[in-house]
Amino acid sequence: MKQVHQDELNSFRAAFPGLDQPINDEPLIYFDNAATAQSPQVAIDAVTNYYSNNKANVHRGVHTLGTRSTELYDQARQTVADFIHAPTATDVIFTKGSTEGLNWVAQSFAQQLTETDEIIVSVFEHHANFLPWQRLAQQTGAKLVVIGLTQNNEFDWAAFEAKLGPQTKIVALTMMSNVTGTTIDMRRVSAMAHEVGAVVVADAAQAIVHMAIDVVALDVDYLVFSGHKLYGPMGIGVLYGKTALLNQMEPALVGGGMVALVTNTTAEWLPLPERLEAGTPNVGGAVGLAAVITWLQTLDQGVLQQHVQRLAQALITGLAQRPAVTTYVASGSPIISFNLVDVHPHDVATALDQLGIAVRAGHHCAQPLMQALGLPNTGTVRLSLAPYNTLAELQRFLEALDEIIVYFRR
After folding, report:
1. Which residues lie closer than 8 Å to 331 by C-beta, 6 or more apart?
2. In this predicted model, what pLDDT tens digit does every residue of 146-173 receive, in sequence order?
3. CB 369 within 8 A of CB 123
4. 4 pLDDT band (50/70/90 cuts)?
5. Which of 189, 365, 381, 394 is catalytic?
6. Of 71, 125, 154, 375, which is most buried, counting CB atoms within 10 Å of its CB?
7. How far is 36 from 178, CA to CA, in rounded Å?
């Protein structure tokens, strides 16, 4: 690796203060990035500065702090819109996270679907992109169609094509599995779904970290992601929607900040985006997310992603060399799930934590996938990589795993 690339990786890692701490008297090794990523100092500083110097409600007061806060909030929306190549900033709605955005979209169809309609999801979905559609099907009588796995544990395109038809009204799919890292080509999905008149909803919660997102090129109708997985603050997320569809959505919440006129018997909503953002928004979260996005755009994403790919390949190779390990991972994925023979994932994760290594264990909010993989009662151990992880950390993990294997075989 060229020294300049290593310098950039070192600089990237140094930007995250949370990584520099001991856990159980061991240096922290953080491999739980798919659940939530650590935040760089630039995001922490942006949030701190907002609350220290600019905190006021937005789109309400005419005083100086109110004006500053509103400008920062509006700038954050434009930053996000530019990042995902949305045609206009008003197509970006701030939410608490992917879960809230998906629920809002699902409920906007509650008065539109009938018993003759179908909603397509996949077995790869996080519960956030499964349960809202399951509930919508129960509310409306529509059929929930779940696309399964191929023999190679990939998305079953043949089944998807066979299930698509005039009865399909919604296709809601993840762009990247949070368990195996399996990716689904959303541009292909959109082309196929739109041929039968279906609306396409993309869950980009994992994908937003590992690939460039262009909502126009993907031609998705809705897309969601969460700030905290993109190194930003918790409690802030994004719902993108095509303008016409957002205008058709009834607000999930009504109250202050989203009305143009209220009488005793009527209410008139403001235009987008305010009409879908009732109440006081998470301005500090939006500012922090925008700071992260702005910072990320100054970096060489090719270098960062190539590093993650090298880490992933090294990890997959290392796990394959251990007969006691069974892996569940797509080729080249930065998200790697595995199990040890006859050892519960929680026991593995607890043992690793004692050595300062943070991983995730369980069903990862993806129980339908766990059932499809034959793991309904146990789940998996999951490592999810970020550019601030290192080969030295992977080597330490593999050494720790060997210690755990020996311990449980005594």
Report:
1. none
2. 999 998 999 999 999 999 999 999 999 9
3. yes
4. low
5. 365
6. 125
7. 11
pLDDT value at position 2? 63
Answer for the pair 405, 324: CB distance below 8 angstroms, yes or no. yes
Encoded tokens for 33 = 């990035």
The C-alpha atoms of residue 296 and residue 294 are separated, in whole angstroms, by 6
Give the DSSP per-residue string, 55-100: ---SSS--SHHHHHHHHHHHHHHHHHHHHHT-SSGGGEEEESSHHH
Q: Any residues with CB less than 8 A from the CB of 135 and at least 6 apart, and which? A: 106
Q: What are phi and psi of 331, to 5 degrees?
A: -60, 125
Tens digit of pLDDT for each residue in 84-141? 999 999 999 999 999 999 999 999 999 999 999 999 999 999 999 999 999 999 999 9
Q: Which residues is 143 bridged to in the sheet?
A: 118
Query: Which pLDDT score, from 0 to 100, does residue 230 have?
Result: 98
Whole-angstrom Cα distance, residue 156 to residue 150? 5
Question: Which pTM does this prediction carry?
Answer: 0.97
Among the listed residues 344, 339, 346, 347, the one whose alpha carbon sits nearest the alpha carbon of residue 323? 339
Tokens describing residue 307: 């590093």
Active site annotation includes 402: no
Q: ω before 273 within 30° of 0 (cis)?
A: yes
Q: In what order do the strands lie in the sheet with 168-174?
A: 92-95, 237-241, 222-226, 199-203, 168-174, 118-122, 143-147
Mean pLDDT of 333-348: 97
